[in-house]
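Why run this: before we spend reagent on co-expression, it is cheaper to look at a predicted model of the complex and decide which construct boundaries make sense. The entries below are exactly what would go into the expression plan.
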Amino acid sequence: MTEGAEVVTSVRAGAWSCPLPLRDHERIVTGHGGGGRLSSELIEHLFRPAFGGEVDDPAHDSVVLPVPTGGARLAFSTDAYVVTPVIFPGGSIGDLAVNGTVNDIAMSGAIPLVLSAAFVLEEGLELATLGRIAEDMGRAAAAAEVRLVTGDTKVVEARDRGGLTITTAGYGVIPDGVELGPKRVRPGDQVLLSGPIGEHGMAIMSLREGLEFESQLRTDSAPLAGLVQTMLAAAPGGGVRALRDATRGGFAAVLCELAEAGGTGIEYVERDVPVPSDVAAACSFLGLDPTHVANEGKLVAVVAPEVAEVVLEAMRSHPQGREAVRVGEVVDDHHGIVVARTGIGARRVVDLPLGEQLPRIC
Amino acid sequence: MKYLDEFNDPELAAQQFEEIARIVTRPWALMEVCGGQTHSIVRNGIDQLLPEQVRLIHGPGCPVCVTPLETIDKALAIAARDDTIFCSFGDMLRVPGSHHDLFQIRSAGGDVRVVYSPLDAVRIAAEHPDKEVVFFGIGFETTAPANAMTVVEAKRRGLTNFSMLVSHVLVPPAIAAIASSPDTQVNAYLAAGHVNTVMGTAEYEPLVERFKVPIVVTGFEPLDVLEGIRRALLQLEQGRAEVENAYPRAVKAGGNPAAQAVLAEVFEVCDRPWRGIGVIPASGWRLSERYRDFDAEDRFEVTDLHVEESPLCRSGEVLQGLIKPNECEQFGITCTPRKPLGATMVSSEGACAAYYQYRRLALQEEVRA
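The model came back. Tokens follow.
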């Protein structure tokens, strides 16, 4: 995505000094990895200046690179995966590590081709667990039609108990004529969501905290590249403007990033956002907002109004988009800000979560 | 859990708004006592749709917000000890002490853990006999029974390495303090429904007698809040001042006797400072004599604290309903959820945080207009 390069013109790598927002924290706190404000500040004020302007826009899931010869374009992405517990209902850190990077590549409109995987294993990790995770990765790669082609393994002393970190990177090829990004978003465009939100985050949290609800919550981890290609095929004339997978920070964070990066306003109707009843119950119990909870198999699409219906139909014909809905619209007002129409018909500002969501006391 | 939808029904809400507009003939100010209600009101935009004559004043019922700075500083000092595992509910972690918050203590190597049930802290104490395990027991009457049970359980299991840093506060004395202030503008109170689930409604009768104000026990979903508002306004318009229960599906007049029994066993009433407000007599609980061994304040001699409140923060006035969050000069400028000057900007129940999160647009428009 070429927009990424525009933003970084003001870098003065030599004159770098710790900018104001980072002065609040002398050390890394959990929130710096939460995908919210603190994360973007870390990228904006520490990594971007230090890297000398070669980093993509932090709101982008993958970077689009022209291949020096031949005219093809590649989408490239990397992501590190940490989750406790490493195996959970419906999947494991292995599925996540494959699907997550596949989806980041797919959000540029690319067809993912290959992945690398690097493992940092803690002493004491059971081989059976690692075996199960590796099998999950193989299965997920097969389902997403990508090949795991190279990797690395390191072992570190266990701080608490045997866990692991997986980093995957990969690339895919962007078909000719496909050009996606928040800068292409226009007022009047429609906002589509590929299915119910909040399942992955609440599955992990209820398992971690031993909360039991009527039914067991399962992760929604799934590859989205097939769904993306189905959508692009349904609107070949560039009607699909921007795509984002709603992972860390959830549905709300994705809308905020799109509005900020595109400089448009976005409005959505709370009632139209599907939240499974068990997710709603778990969130209500913990005082969390389901629109801020992570998903691992859901995307948000901004599409031109004239193709909204046909793209929605195409999404519903695909297994990963069967419950796709239209939730909102891009507006020429409150630029950079997302506004929700509440259940009772009032309006409220939707903000990026600061860092981690914190369960309320009562 | 279908009720979440049922109590958020737009048509029923519209009917309630119409009914409220029909009842009201003159200006009234209502205080919702509980931070959970403030959050619901601002998040759902209930106050935007009320008649102009009805003003909602946000009360002091956010446990995170009113926990005294000195107690937070004590918590930070205890949490920083090498021999200690400090357990807390999640939203205390970002509350600023004089110099740090619990996240920063954790980042610097302190063992600070978020728990969802205080009993988790007892389990951690049993698993780590070589460590002191301290639970930060704060909140109103709602969270107190679980905290009380935790101390009972620790005693039953003979755990000598468990203690609780207690800063429990009580709703009725806070209402009394606000109602007896000469500056008060509050005409009626929406009581915090879940507090009444535990305590019942009897202790509110003397307040109604003494201050001649309606007190309506109110729930938290949008339609619950609207019903509380409607009943309070009806009382005011009819010149009545009574305790009324608008949340009967969760509140019985007698409350929860089993919970009250364990509270009476474990806690005793004490004077308690409220952050931003000051000491309110007989407004808190501390551990009773027979459970004093579990009091973290006694166990850890925390001295040498330099308690330093931001001179710019006006959260005290916000908590007493004297100003709206956006009337503070620092709101959204030097004070944001990322760098809060006071606790009301931290918890999602805090009035300042709720305004910042959901209201910036309306506030910008007001400024423009």
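Residues 344 and 350 of chain B are 4 Å apart (CA to CA). The mean pLDDT of chain B is 90. Bring this page to Monday's planning discussion.
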